[in-house]
Write a structure and sequence with these properties.
The chain is mostly beta strands and 105 residues long. It is built from one helix and ten strands; from the N terminus they run E-H-E-E-E-E-E-E-E-E-E. The chain has one domain (2-104): Immunoglobulins (Immunoglobulin-like, Sandwich), CATH 2.60.40.10. Strand 9 and strand 10 (98-104) form a beta hairpin.
Length: 105
């Protein structure tokens, strides 16, 4: 994943001021699909996720608002779990796959 970390958490929910929330452009690379969404701890792992727009070459982009921190995420491609093929940082999850890490500074 390129750019900083992701998230769609509101400042009110985190107890942080709106000044600490950042606009975070997120670009990922995954298998092609008609519907690609980003989900993770910043969305409560919602199965709807945050819709991403195709920018070609298997790359997708979304704009998030997140306070600084590290966030775990995965992609949903046409309703199926998928990896960010460019993620440099990953952690094993309880399901035997890996979550990518998005760092927001």
């Amino acid at each position: 994943m390129q750019a900083a970390k992701m998230g769609a958490t509101s400042a009110a929910k985190t107890g942080l001021s709106s000044a600490s929330v950042r606009q975070v452009p997120v670009t990922v690379r995954t298998i092609d699909g008609k519907k690609v969404a980003l989900t993770g701890d910043f969305t409560g792992w919602s199965l709807e996720g945050i819709p991403m727009k195709s920018i070609g070459g298997g790359r997708y982009r979304a704009q998030l608002k997140l306070p600084p921190g590290d966030y775990q995420f995965r992609l949903l491609v046409d309703g199926k779990w998928a990896d960010d093929l460019d993620s440099a940082r990953k952690v094993t999850n309880p399901f035997g796959t890996e979550n990518a890490i998005l760092a927001v500074s």
